[in-house]
Specification:
single chain, mainly alpha, Arc Repressor Mutant, subunit A, 3 domains, three-stranded antiparallel β-sheet, 10 helices, about 10% strand, elongated
Length: about 270
């Protein structure tokens, strides 16, 4: 850069945050700088030919000021730690596979009430660990399936695909997984993934679909996105597009959709 500037080159810097958040303004400033450079006399193609441009440090300071006025963490209060069921289950003289469907359903409901929405694999693992059992064989799985059926029939919880939900479900909350909860996206409810994608679209002021997916994955505690994770998150991303919760503009950037009239509070 120093060599080029000594040769009379003008280096115009665009801070990446400005480019994503204020694309039109950044393009206008760039166009203005190019026009002024093109129309300036050759003798003035040095530093005095153009109006003063913001230095990188000034851009960082300005961006930091904007962030501080809003929040140091835009996701604060909108992502919660994953709460795992941790109560022991006393079976008395029974083996787990001997538990009747009615009682098994109560055990499952206690887990679902804390972890909803939760994958059935995770419910079985939590049940097994609560009973101090290292693995679930055929008979335990059969008793587990019987408890699932009884719980669904009695509306103790509901099941959508492989996920169990509370009977009286609350709004979907994004939860960051820790060492006790499964870090595999296979065990993340699609609705929770979609919620994370919509949240990133809301607070990131535009980003490419891969960027949004990567940021959404980090909300779950995932640092490196595998092919399986990318596929799971892409499905949720596509579902959010179809549901018109997010949109992709002509520049390929993701934004939240404005609510339609029917979605506004009080609309008929």
């Amino acid at each position: 850069q120093g060599v080029l500037e000594r040769m009379g080159w003008r280096v115009y810097r665009i801070w990446s945050t400005d480019w994503y958040r204020n694309r039109r303004d950044a393009e206008q400033r760039l166009l203005q700088a190019v026009k002024q450079a093109a129309s300036a006399p050759l003798a003035q193609t040095g530093a005095s030919a153009l109006p003063p441009l913001r230095t990188k440090s000034e851009m960082i300071d300005a961006d930091a000021t904007r962030e501080t006025t809003k929040s140091s963490d835009p996701y604060e209060g909108r992502v919660e730690p994953y709460d795992c069921y941790a109560e022991p289950i006393e079976l008395g003289s029974l083996e787990l596979h001997e538990v009747e469907a009615q009682q098994m359903a109560r055990y499952l409901k206690a887990i679902v009430d804390i972890e909803s929405p939760v994958h059935t694999d995770e419910v079985l693992r939590r049940l097994r660990e609560a009973c101090g059992i290292s693995r679930a064989g055929r008979r335990i799985r059969e008793a587990f399936a019987a408890g699932l059926g009884h719980g669904r029939d009695q509306a103790m919880f509901s099941q959508h695909s492989s996920f169990l939900w509370r009977a009286q479900e609350r709004p979907v909350v994004i939860r960051k997984r820790d060492s006790d909860a499964s870090p595999s996206s296979v065990h993340f409810a699609p609705e929770e993934i979609a919620e994370a994608i919509c949240l990133v679209a809301e607070v990131s002021f535009g980003g490419s679909p891969p960027d949004v997916i990567n940021r959404a994955a980090k909300l779950f505690g995932i640092q490196s996105v595998s092919k399986v994770t990318a596929t799971d998150f892409q499905k949720a991303f596509d579902a959010a597009l179809v549901a018109k919760r997010i949109r992709v503009d002509e520049d390929g950037l993701v934004h939240p959709c404005e609510p339609t009239h029917d979605e506004l509070p009080g609309s008929a």
